[in-house]
Amino acid sequence: MVVLLLLLLVLLDVDACNITVKIRSETKQKFRIQLFVPSLKLKSAKVLFTGPEEKKLKIEGPNCWADKWVVRTWKLDGGTAGGWTGARQESARLDALVPAWLRIVVGDDLRPMITDRESVFCSEGSFCG
């Protein structure tokens, strides 16, 4: 009976995701990065990096897998106004069955790449790593 109850609890939580996204900058360039999870209608703030460092975002919701996640980076446009222009964009389907994490690393080319992940499913994307 206990096994059936545990199985039921797991099955009820199958469509939920709980992912910590660790974003690491390995460049000295100033850039911004943003995550968009369409299936959750969730868009993170544009997180600013001013040099090598790591920041975390938490993604939680009922179903992360339905649509591809989009990760965008922006760079300073070089003009006197100090505006930002799009640098790179990557996308993939991501989901997790248990609390999980993934690391996105951004280098000098400002391309976001997943380098490490634990308990995260990743497909249909070139940045899965």
Extract low-pLDDT stretches. 5-12
CATH C-level: Mainly Beta
CATH evolutionary superfamily: Type VI secretion system, lipoprotein SciN
Structural class: mainly beta
Report Rg: 17 Å
**Within the CATH hierarchy, at the fold level, what is the topology?**
Immunoglobulin-like
What is the CATH architecture assignment? Answer: Sandwich
Written overview of the protein:
The chain has one helix at 2-12; strands spanning 17-25, 31-37, 42-43, 47-49, 53-61, 69-76, 84-106, 112-123. The longest helix is centred in the first third of the chain and has 11 residues, at 2-12. The chain has a single domain (15-123), classed as Type VI secretion system, lipoprotein SciN (Immunoglobulin-like, Sandwich). Strands 1, 2, 3, 4, 5, 6, 7 and 8 form an 8-stranded mixed sheet that branches. The radius of gyration is 17 Å and the shape is elongated. It contains 1 helix and 8 strands, in the order αββββββββ. Residues 1-16 form the signal peptide.
What's this, in brief?
This protein is elongated. The model is unreliable at 5-12 (pLDDT under 50).
Question: What distinguishing features does this structure have?
Answer:
129 residues, mainly beta, Immunoglobulin-like, eight-stranded mixed β-sheet, 1 helix
Topology (elements, then pairings):
Layout: H1 2-12, E1 17-25, E2 31-37, E3 42-43, E4 47-49, E5 53-61, E6 69-76, E7 84-106, E8 112-123
Parallel strand pairs: 1-7
Antiparallel strand pairs: 1-5, 2-3, 2-4, 2-6, 6-7, 7-8
